[in-house]
Design goal:
It is built from 11 helices and 5 strands, in the order E-H-H-E-E-H-E-H-H-E-H-H-H-H-H-H. By secondary structure, it is α/β, with parallel strands linked by helices. The structure holds iron/sulfur cluster (3 copies).
Length: about 260
């Protein structure tokens, strides 16, 4: 069987998702039998040029030079796979408050400083992305599942459920019933609801689930949380994608109708 030529690239991020890739150990050795990893700066010397059957890209570009490299990779690769939240939804690099950026540059570097950096956006802001391996960091099983689907010649697909499904499987009491914010209902499943099981809310690092009902969730959240509290929760992962932000903005603008007890 012909081995698939794979390149693994990274832009700005913490490289935690690539560490996860290394951590699948024996499974990686098994998968490498089917893949020829021809370019992987973090883990090997060989850095061959394309064309590639697939480029797996971690992180997000933060200079025009990196954007140009990303576009080049798109040209050279049959498939582009975003690895982790930084690549799929701008993740941690995207948290920066853009409106305050100039103020801090002026304060730290002095007025007149011309930064080379640009805003962190998801890869999909620049190129077509064929599949996203979600999470901050990614989940090993999701990674292996995606690589196995590639090996089998299939187009990788997403889990058909939200985080709530796995949360219920884990036997967690629902935070919403306890009047605590949680984005599980609108977040793509696949992480095994690790945060909720550990006592934390879901902030949505697995990205928006296509059928997610943002308006319905916001209506429930407004029953016990202020718009400012909901927005604070949003800044972790959902603010960086204009469509998600707009959907939240619209839902938050709607009047809350509170039921009056007879
Ligand atoms: S998604 Fe999270 S763990 Fe992965 S590279 Fe980005 S910051 Fe690191
Ligand atoms: S706690 Fe969060 S993830 Fe779990 S069922 Fe409730 S809303 Fe869904
Ligand atoms: S529970 Fe939510 S924030 Fe936590 S890993 Fe899963 S998707 Fe990410």
């Amino acid at each position: 069987m012909k081995k698939l030529k794979i390149a693994i690239y990274d832009f700005t991020d913490c490289e935690g998702c690539e560490v996860k890739l290394c951590s699948i150990k024996e499974k990686l050795v098994d998968l490498v039998e089917s893949f020829d990893i021809v370019n992987w700066r973090l883990a090997q010397d060989a850095c061959l040029d394309g064309p590639y059957d697939a480029a797996i890209i971690e992180g997000t570009p933060v200079t025009e030079h990196e954007v140009a490299l990303l576009k080049e990779l798109r040209e050279k690769s049959a498939l582009i796979i975003a690895l982790g939240a930084c690549a799929s939804i701008a993740g941690i690099p995207g948290i920066m408050n853009r409106s305050e950026r100039k103020k801090w540059y002026d304060k730290i570097y002095g007025k007149g400083y011309k930064p080379a950096g640009i805003d962190a956006l998801p890869l999909s802001a620049y190129i077509k992305v064929d599949h996203m391996i979600h999470g901050c960091p990614i989940d090993e099983d999701e990674l292996v599942r995606t690589l196995e689907e590639l090996r089998a010649g299939k187009t990788p697909c997403y889990r058909g459920y939200s985080v709530c499904f796995e949360c219920k499987q884990a036997g967690n009491p629902c935070r919403l019933l306890n009047k605590e914010i949680c984005f599980g209902p609108i977040t793509q499943g696949g992480c095994k609801a690790v945060c909720v099981s550990a006592g934390s809310p879901c902030y949505g690092c697995f990205g928006y689930r296509e059928e997610g009902n943002i308006e319905g969730l916001v209506r429930i959240l407004r029953g016990f949380a202020t718009p400012a509290e909901i927005r604070a929760h949003l800044t972790m992962f959902f603010n960086q994608i204009p469509e998600y932000k707009a959907a939240f903005d619209n839902a938050l603008k709607k009047k809350v109708v509170r039921k009056v007890k007879p």
